[in-house]
Description:
The complex is a heterodimer. By secondary structure, chain A is mainly beta. Chain A has no helices and 11 strands. Chain A is globular, with a radius of gyration of 13 Å. Chain A starts with a strand and ends with a strand. Chain B is built from no helices and 9 strands. Chain B is an all-beta fold. Chain B has strands spanning 9-13, 18-23, 31-38, 45-50, 55-56, 61-64, 70-75, 84-92, 105-110. The interface between A and B is medium-sized, with 28 and 23 residues.
Amino acid sequence: xxxxxxxxxxxxxxxxxxxxxxxxxxxxxxxxxxxxxxxxxxxxxxxxxxxxxxxxxxxxxxxxxxxxxxxxxxxxxxxxxxxxxxxxxxxxxxxxxxxxxxxxxxxxxxxxx
Amino acid sequence: xxxxxxxxxxxxxxxxxxxxxxxxxxxxxxxxxxxxxxxxxxxxxxxxxxxxxxxxxxxxxxxxxxxxxxxxxxxxxxxxxxxxxxxxxxxxxxxxxxxxxxxxxxxxxxx
Lengths: 113, 111
């Protein structure tokens, strides 16, 4: 069964450094998402992306965050200058057609030191 | 904020049916009911969704009350691997609407 893959599984970065989290969505999916989950807390929506544009973003997704689909297969989340509070699990999700379910990857654990 | 309320936890015996309740009394006509689960810290896994009618797939059944204000996810024969946090989510009908997760219900399946 096709799946969303995320790399790396664990990323450790110094505060203030840039980090790029990578996702390979399910082939032929059209809609893409990033969510995050701080340890012990709820899964939170960050951003949705369709047709090479951001469709919706949350208050968390400030100017330090950006997303890109640089080629036909990857979907990336960049954090320009990481803060301690960015430490979390980051989940990528993709969706085939409108109103279909989102399918999630197993996440990248981001640890900011 | 999540538009659903779920009990914090429940357990069931292995091999028995697990019935997970969810209240969504403020659901609108243009909102689906979705269920996901999360095992340990893995990514949320899609289970099932419905709008008005009851739904069944290879994983579970979804029973939605006629007034749509509540629903029940049924795992017909729970196994130890079904131990997880289960999220009931109301999602707006729309091309790429977001999922708003609550705290979910922790299901513990005992041997």
